[in-house]
Write a structure and sequence with these properties.
By secondary structure, the protein is α+β, with helices and mostly antiparallel strands. It has helices spanning 9-17, 38-44, 58-62, 73-82; strands at 25-27, 33-37, 86-87, 92-95, 101-108. Strands 1, 2, 3, 4 and 5 form a 5-stranded antiparallel sheet that branches. InterPro entries: HSF_DNA-bd (IPR000232), WH-like_DNA-bd_sf (IPR036388), WH_DNA-bd_sf (IPR036390). Keywords: DNA-binding, Nucleus.
Length: 146
């Protein structure tokens, strides 16, 4: 969407999930959830393995390896959390036709829905949940006996 900076984390994520060449980030069946296939995401997007995708348009996806400026999946999870995405259940282990297993993470945000890019402007970094000391600023008399 034009109203959001392409450097904004949700805009980058939107670009990946809507890129037909990106197999590691997909919409769920309802279009309200996000599925991230971790080992494939590590290769395709984070570029943690030297293997690059092949075929038509591979050069476009190969450039995605620098899109988030990190090679750690944990940093992506932190960003998702920062922007208010919620984990939808435990990560699933899925077996592929070749017999290898893959970890699939499911996330959801009310402002990240297929066919509604206009909602992305509402995705802002959440303020930290700072713990508040309930006794901060109270004067406790020194003559209290225990």
């Amino acid at each position: 969407p034009a109203a959001i900076s392409p450097q904004h984390f949700p805009a980058k994520l939107w670009g990946l999930v809507n890129n037909p060449r990106c197999r590691s980030v997909q919409w769920d069946d309802s279009g309200k959830g996000l599925l991230i296939y971790q080992p494939l995401f590590d290769r395709e997007v984070l570029g943690t393995e030297p293997e690059q995708p092949e075929g038509p348009g591979s050069e476009e996806l190969a450039g995605a390896a620098n899109v988030f400026h990190t090679k750690r999946f944990r940093s992506i999870l932190r960003q998702l959390n920062l922007y208010g995405f919620h984990v939808m259940g435990k990560a699933l282990e899925v077996k592929s036709e070749s017999g290898s297993s893959s970890t699939v993470h499911r996330f959801q945000s009310p402002f990240f829905c297929r066919d509604h890019p206009d909602l992305l402007i509402y995705l802002r970094p959440q303020k930290g949940n700072k713990r508040i000391n309930p006794f901060a600023g109270l004067q406790i008399p020194s003559n209290i006996q225990e």
